[in-house]
Design goal:
It is a single chain. By secondary structure, this protein is α/β, with parallel strands linked by helices. It is 34% helix and 24% strand. It is globular and about 80 Å long. Bound molecules: nicotinamide-adenine-dinucleotide (NAD).
Length: 365
Amino acid sequence: MSDILKVGVVGVGHLGKEHARILSSMPEVELVGVADHNVAQVEAVAQCCGTRAFTDYRSLLPLVNAAIIVVPTTHHHHISVDFLKHCIPLLVEKPLAGIPHEAEELLELALQQEVTLQVGHIERFNPAFEELLNLPLRPKYITSERCGGFTGRSTDVGVVLDLMVHDLDLVLALVQAPIRSVQALGVSVLGGHEDVVQARVTFADGCVADFAASRINPVLSRKMQVWGAEGYAGIDFSCRRLTLMQPAVHMRQGRINSRRLDSATLTTLKAELFGKHLQTTERDCNNSSDQLTRELADFVRCVRTGQKPRVDGVAGCEAVKLAWQILGSLRSHAWEGDANGPCGPWQLPAPRGTLFDLPAQVAAA
Ligand SMILES: NC(=O)c1ccc[n+]([C@@H]2O[C@H](COP(=O)([O-])OP(=O)(O)OC[C@H]3O[C@@H](n4cnc5c(N)ncnc54)[C@H](O)[C@@H]3O)[C@@H](O)[C@H]2O)c1
């Protein structure tokens, strides 16, 4: 392989155009083309990035040494298969595929052809998460929340494969134990796939992870909290901030028992809790380049060296499999406690009425 890696991007919509922009500025890469069946979009992106536009991704097959697949999830499999059959290393956006057996097929094909298969679980490159992974914190209870408004994109899948899958991958990277059980419930509000989901995953080492995801939430939130015997870590993925809390030595040694304190000492304890007894620190992790650039740099490095990517095909497969366990559980959730009654995101119990009345002119609008 020459010094310059010839790369193509398939799908240059909301995210793919960013992949193309970054790749076009990487000195070790030549962006040889972008493909998208939206003619206006592909021509505009190609012009911006100084490369060629194609409306059929197959035109890239003879031109590239590596490709990035950034089409809607339900198209990942068939397009990726074509590239892998031509021994072309891939970075496939998350989730690796829409269904587990398609994800497994991609993994097997990549192994057979001995080519790099990386998955775009970009939060693994969030510096706050990277810092968390380096801490001696053994997770015992994890909560995650990934909520936002409706974007109009990713309507080919529900919120589990769209948003929650980020946190499923992160938790699978944090907890090195088999999954023991999965429970979930969810609701479809916009009429397609599920839009709001709550799930609980229990691991064989006793760790429990609660996941919340919504794509109809008025407020954007991407957060995770990890609790262990060592203390607590909270990540705000949007701000790339890590909050740590640990009991001070005298607390860990059990030298304070709040049940035995007189009221004056209790008042002092309350005032001095954070800092003296529970040590806290905030770490702003905004000290590295953006995550997409680092993810792409990891891909280029792995294609060149043959090293295993941080988020490989195995990790991508595991996240899709767990997502499907969650989908299976939420589809069978019985809202009235009866499997013959309303079950799953599309069948809710009959509503008792409206919660409030809107003024007539607003309701009519
Ligand atoms: N890692 C992340 O944080 C993140 C964020 C957003 C999206 N994504 C993933 O990226 C992928 C794309 O999402 P998006 O938001 O950019 O979607 P999008 O709808 O904005 O863009 C998808 C593009 O693919 C094109 N396309 C569709 N089918 C095609 C085909 N067969 N051949 C060529 N082009 C085709 C469409 O014309 C469109 O321009 C999804 O898998 C999504 O899950 C990941």
